[in-house]
Amino acid sequence: MPGVPRQTSKEQAISEPRINDRIRVPEVRLVGPNGEQVGIVRVEDALRLAAEADLDLVEVAPMARPPVAKLMDYGKYKYEAAMKAREARKNQINTVIKEIKLRPKIDAHDYGTKKGHVERFLKAGDKVKVTIMFRGREQSRPELGFRLLQRLAEDVAELGFVESAPRQDGRNMVMVIGPAKKKTAVRQEKRRDAERAAAEAHGQTPAEATVTETAPTEQATTEPVASAGPAATQETTEQE
């Protein structure tokens, strides 16, 4: 196709393993379908064993000498790999930075409103960039902005912590507050709340629902959350 660069054999080997008759080496170190070591065999014999078991011969370590090949259902393997990648993307942690702008002489009502926004963002697991905007003669009184930022940090201390201390940024002063709970923890809490609500809707207590769904010999485990790729950063600004 014009305009589309052709893949080199090296690029193809990286993107997808060689399988079955594409494995063109005299012998391979064969691994069975359950992970058992079969040993070094001729590639013709490995292909015959794969055909007899209705499986594929997949080269899993092409750089080894001899290459390592495994008997497996390649279609099932690709499907499971795709599902794992999808789950990793689903659990990716997105770092969202919200922004709140204040004036150094803000009145009590507006301050309460802005503080409420900061609390809501922190509860959702988002960082908050707080900007104090100075105008005119206010620029000669930076301590007003510093005190306001200190007050805000103290008022939301149960939900977040000062990640970046107040600093002058041109005519403004900024401070970043990080959430006490990470997004993953917030997501897990929401999932537990949804499960609890569903259990109560069916006339069960959360404990009864857990007993119903879990075998007596099993133990509850916590699944780790994976982070795939670099965190994406998004800024949302709320102005006075």
Automatic annotation (TrEMBL):
Protein family membership: Belongs to the IF-3 family.
Keywords assigned by UniProt, alphabetized: Cytoplasm, Initiation factor, Protein biosynthesis
Presence of keyword Protein biosynthesis: yes
Record's protein name: Translation initiation factor IF-3
UniProt key word Cytoplasm: yes
Purpose of the protein: IF-3 binds to the 30S ribosomal subunit and shifts the equilibrium between 70S ribosomes and their 50S and 30S subunits in favor of the free subunits, thus enhancing the availability of 30S subunits on which protein synthesis initiation begins.
Bias (Basic and acidic residues): 186-199
Assembly information from the UniProt record: Monomer.
Domain Translation initiation factor 3 C-terminal positions: 96-179
HAMAP family reported in the protein's UniProt record: IF_3
Gene: infC
Biased composition (Low complexity): 200-226
Stretches for region Disordered: 180-240
Superkingdom of the organism of origin: Bacteria
Record domain Translation initiation factor 3 N-terminal: where: 19-88
InterPro entries in the record: T_IF-3_C_sf, T_IF-3_N_sf, Translation_initiation_fac_3, Translation_initiation_fac_3_C, Translation_initiation_fac_3_N
Record-level GO BP terms: ribosome disassembly
Location in the cell: Cytoplasm
Organism: Ornithinimicrobium tianjinense
GO molecular function: ribosome binding; translation initiation factor activity
Any one cellular-component term (Gene Ontology): cytosol
UniProt lineage: Bacteria, Bacillati, Actinomycetota, Actinomycetes, Micrococcales
